[in-house]
């Protein structure tokens, strides 16, 4: 991780869970596979906090040092736990080994006095150990294993030790307004201290996070509610959802409520809209089919885009976006057809049609609406152009559905 | 970030750049928007290291505290820099404001004696300041802004100050073998200290990273080369690429070399294969079109899957995977057709066809080959099933192309 080959998602996941338990998180620290530095970090963290969680370094290889360093930091011996040995042997037996690779027995060693954390998904068990009155809990780095171990074994222990209270957050999502412009409208709220309101921007969307600390979840909600109302009274026009909502889940819910169906016609986004739409479980209720027409010939043959349009205006043009959306709707027999065609780069831009020029189209019962996007500010990033194009296309459909209820 | 609402990708990006400059990275630390804790972390880091980079906290709002805390840690005054004030005014003028929002003038304040870091993409300039002989450089949290500022302004400064030497990594990618089984085969290499070899697993792929430290890039390469050859001599069968290669980029390169074309037919992956294939710039050279047939009726109408097959075997079945691959190839007129149909969950599983059952198919000139995947171990994660299905489908095509050169 210190070489940058891997992005740490575990810290974010654990932090969300801890916040929900009312635990204030003061630091995330990442340290390399080095005995002295791991041991020092464990001691420092234990001196600073009441609870320390670690992920990674529980594997069978020689650079997996967490247990050894934890034993050293706590001044304890590493000892073999028979139940851990059995767990490892069973795990390998299940996949057809008569005995585990020798190195895996290392995973049966824990600081003396540890309470083990069961791992239903892998060979690496975790441990809970006291270090100068601080609870240290170790987890493997594999997210799925860490998550189930935290939920099933460690959360109850933390809950029992903690003073109570909760930190609750509510996130409001906006689109079609920049971060500065949005912050201006709610500057007085951003200066409050309880609840706090903080803005965060990314890929054409802006969120405001309201965070309250209180004795109970209900009290925290009571503190958040009026602030949320105040924000929405000022920014309703740009608001599209809360918390885990995404543009695709919101659009999906709107379609489902109306019993309406959607087809997609994608060129430069190359399947990204379809992928995001089907990230949402249950999307088969409204998503019928998607066409990734990456060649001009596909646009003609599959969507019925007239050859003359492509010749005269080029694939990235208003008439082609219009014909793609209409074609998808017609071929699929759906209520709506949504299209994207653009220059995602890094190559393929011209003076007339630079990287970042994108046309989106929405075919509905009464016609087709189109929008021109200028994403040339993100010309260095193919993925930014594609994600922003998808966001704007979903938002075009969202706005249409809101206005035509 | 401490509330877990955001995953930190900047640390990984900066770490890769620093490693390439031969800088050893000892720690990543994340700390909250709190004056005392930010100031303490800056002091600690400066005491420990020769170089400290920070991201985030340079915005116009009241919880943006980096400059204030840096001034405090360095014992300097915050002063207004006229060139920063002009930069902000120009940026807002470009988007049609006569003057910036008042709060943005905060972004013109820096610790006295700072060297400013220009930001061509946003209003937040960075600063380089000396703190007890340590160079501290601050960046905004927006990745695109941070990256261009590092590359254009800070890297040259670090290069000039550093002792020289490089840390070079080479990553080898494998598929079709588990992490433990792979580690067993190269255990002796994993125990080496220079170069080091470390395994890492994820979504059905395993990578081995070889890392060497040397005076020059050429020397580091000399150290890596024999280790790479040794690894490949043992694991050639599972090897698919190196460094930034992905299954989709490797498959794309193979298709392009052969002048061959591909069409996709996706059900449970819902556009993910198309999205990943078109993440690769230049993919239009071999990717013709993709069908996201999320309904049975779409599979019949677009791909010509016989109605009887769907009734008799269900959409998730060998015959349907076969018909989808063949249909895509035929309709698109491509050399190859690749299909995926499965139960991605969380709903929709039955005893006979549980969540995680996936069929993949590859249609080529002489027929169709299919494979059954059992991904039920990941039944809790729709995204894991979809990503692993995509990996296995791309690998099916990769193996076929390797064997039929």
What does this structure look like?
The structure is a homodimer of 405-residue chains. Chain A is of the alpha+beta class and 405 residues long. Chain A has three domains: 10-161, Molybdenum Cofactor Biosythetic Enzyme, Chain A; 166-242, Alpha-Beta Plaits, CATH 3.30.70.2860; 247-403, Maf protein (Alpha-Beta Complex), CATH 3.90.950.20. Chain A has helices at 10-20, 35-48, 66-74, 82-94, 143-161, 179-185, 187-190, 217-235, 247-258, 272-279, 296-303, 307-313, 318-332, 382-403, and strands at 27-31, 51-55, 78-80, 109-111, 115-117, 126-131, 134-139, 166-175, 196-202, 205-214, 239-242, 262-266, 287-293, 336-342, 357-364, 367-374. At the A-B interface, helix 1, strand 1, strand 8, helix 6 and strand 9 of A face helix 1, strand 1, strand 8, helix 6 and strand 9 of B. Strand 13 of chain A pairs antiparallel with strand 13 (287-293) of chain B, so a sheet runs across the interface.
């Amino acid at each position: 991780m210190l070489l940058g080959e891997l992005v740490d998602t575990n810290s974010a996941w654990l932090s969300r869970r801890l916040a929900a338990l009312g635990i204030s998180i003061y630091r995330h620290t990442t340290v390399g596979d080095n005995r002295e530095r791991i041991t020092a970090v464990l001691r420092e963290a234990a001196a600073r906090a009441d609870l320390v969680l670690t992920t990674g370094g529980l594997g069978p290889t020689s650079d997996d040092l967490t247990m050894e360093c934890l034993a050293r930091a706590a001044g304890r011996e590493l000892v073999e736990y028979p139940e851990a040995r059995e767990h490892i042997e069973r795990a390998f037996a299940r996949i057809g080994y008569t005995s585990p690779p020798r190195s895996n027995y290392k995973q049966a060693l824990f600081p003396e006095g540890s309470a083990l954390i069961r791992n239903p998904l892998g060979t690496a068990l975790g441990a809970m150990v006291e270090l100068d009155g601080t609870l240290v809990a170790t987890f493997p780095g594999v997210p799925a294993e860490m998550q189930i171990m935290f939920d099933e074994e460690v959360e109850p222990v933390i809950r029992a030790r903690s003073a109570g209270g909760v930190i609750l957050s509510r996130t409001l999502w906006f689109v079609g307004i920049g971060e500065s412009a949005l912050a201006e409208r709610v500057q007085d709220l951003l200066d409050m201290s309880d609840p706090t309101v903080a803005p965060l921007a990314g890929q054409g969307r802006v969120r405001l996070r309201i965070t309250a600390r209180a004795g109970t979840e209900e009290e925290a909600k009571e503190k958040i509610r009026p602030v949320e109302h105040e924000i929405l009274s000022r920014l309703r026009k740009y608001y599209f959802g809360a918390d885990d909502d995404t543009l695709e889940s919101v659009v999906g819910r709107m379609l489902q409520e109306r019993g309406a169906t959607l087809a997609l016609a994608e060129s430069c986004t190359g399947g990204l809209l379809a992928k995001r739409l089907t990230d949402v479980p249950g999307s088969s209720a409204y998503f019928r089919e998607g066409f990734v027409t990456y060649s001009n010939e596909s646009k003609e043959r599959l969507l019925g885009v007239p050859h003359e349009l492509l010749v005269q205006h080029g694939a990235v043009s208003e008439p082609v976006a219009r014909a793609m959306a209409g074609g998808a709707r017609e071929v699929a027999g759906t209520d709506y057809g949504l299209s994207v065609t653009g220059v995602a780069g890094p190559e393929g831009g011209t003076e007339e049609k630079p990287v970042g020029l994108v046309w989106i189209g929405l075919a509905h019962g009464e016609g087709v609406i189109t929008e021109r996007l200028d994403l040339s500010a993100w010309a260095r990033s193919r993925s930014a152009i594609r994600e922003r194009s998808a966001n704007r296309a979903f938002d075009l459909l969202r706005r249409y559905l809101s206005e035509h209820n």
